[in-house]
Amino acid sequence: MKNFKVSVVVPAFNEEGNIPRLANELVNVLKQYKSYEIIFINDGSVDNTLDTIKKLRLHNKNIHYISLSRNFGHQYALKAGLDSATGDFVISMDADLQHPVNLIPTLIQEWQNGYDIVYTVRTDKKTESLFKRSTSKLYYKIFNFLTGLNMPSGTADFRGMDKKAVQILKNMPEKTLFLRGLVFWMGFKQKALSYQVHPRFTGKSAYTLKKMMSLAMAGATSFSVKPLRIAIYAGFIVAVLGCLFTAYVLYMKLFGGATISGWASIMCVFLILGGSQLFMMGIIGEYIGMIFMEMKKRPSYIVDETSLNQDK
Ligand code: UDP
Ligand code: MG
Questions:
Q1: In which element (H, E) is residue 286 found?
Q2: Residue 138: predicted pLDDT
Q3: Residue 38 · residue 63 · CB < 8 Å
Q4: Closest residue by Cα to residue 301 from 66, 83, 72, 65
Q5: How far is the CA of 80 from the centre of ligand 1 (A)?
């Protein structure tokens, strides 16, 4: 296949310092292909990200922008880009040059070799903080345990997909997005490539601990009901232990004589039961919250302005 179009989708939140260099590197790599488009999604930046993209577009009409009405978050910005991409092969990557542009020809080559999804796994060296590396590792372990999938630790949102896979993502109605999980879950012929993360070129990471937690929760709850099941098992075990303890208490009351002492044991039972009940209610609450959010059927993102044709 020679006459194909490549799309590159790049979510950007306050990335004015990185975009010109990234665009330049991308164009240098992509111009060898017949046709390409680069779509930047301005995710409610408060710096000059949008103007920077518009300026680049003056010189190269293959560069497009979608500007969202506010900051919706990386996953939603990415979805906005995927929804509008028209390429036969659609690549997504970060705007901060952490994802090596020179891996793109390899992604495309593997697609040409017959893989539908070519995803990347970062080989964690010292570029990311120890905290980020260890929490990420732990998270993939928990995610795989909950979902029964086997997503490699360090799977990134730097990947290429055939347009048939992109079409499936476009048609997915769900609002709670954990895209790398969805893509992995989708199946098809997938190929993993490893890459070395570069340090961020300029600016600082917008993935705060709070945003990471919320992505982690979205991944866990939207992919599996196992936490609910674990809550049932845990509840059952606590109830059995409670029955045994009750039997002991009754025995002591009827035949043991001394029943006044035991403040410590009462407090222990009270605290453990109270804590585990709250925890399990929290799990149930997360799922109810997710049902509520999905039920409202609000759009995942709102486009303010774009250089792309909006009629799909
Ligand atoms: N990003 C975004 N919206 C956000 C946060 C991040 O579009 O609310 C983009 C950001 O511009 C970058 C990518 O998502 O292109 C990854 O973000 P970041 O580099 O902050 O995350 P990290 O690499 O630290 O995980
Ligand atoms: Mg980054």
A1: helix 263-295
A2: 87
A3: yes
A4: 72
A5: 14
Please report, as a single letter, which amino acid is at residue 297. K
Residue 132 structure tokens: 């980020």
Judged against a pLDDT cut of 60, whether residue 311 lies above it is answered with no
Task: State the average pLDDT over residues 128-151.
Answer: 83
Ligand approaching nearest to the C-alpha of 215: 1
Neighbours of ion ligand 2 (CB under 5 A): 94, 96, 98
CA pair distance 11, 45, nearest whole angstrom: 10
The closest of 120, 40, 38 to 78, measured between CA atoms, is 40
**For residues 189-205, b (16+ Cβ closer than 10 Å) or e, as one string?**
ebbebebebeebeeeee
Ligand 1, pocket-test mutation among 22, 92, 96, 204, most atoms within 8 A of CB:
96
Residues 23 and 63: their CA atoms lie apart, in Å, by: 8
Q: Pick from 104, 125, 127, 107: which is nearest to 115 by CA?
A: 107
Does 272 score more than 80 pLDDT?
no
Distances from the Cα of 301 to the Cαs of 148, 244, 255, in angstroms? 30, 53, 67
Share of the chain above pLDDT 70, in %: 96
Q: Nearest-CA neighbor of 306 among 72, 80, 56, 25?
A: 80
Whole-number Å distance between alpha carbons of 200 and 13: 13
Residues whose beta carbon lies within 6 Å of some atom of ligand 1: 11-13, 15, 43, 71, 73-74, 77, 94-96, 98, 205-207
CA of 114 to the centre of ligand 2 (A): 29
Identify the residue whose C-alpha is closest to ligand 1 atom 16: 94
Closest-CA residue, ligand 1 atom 12, reads: 94
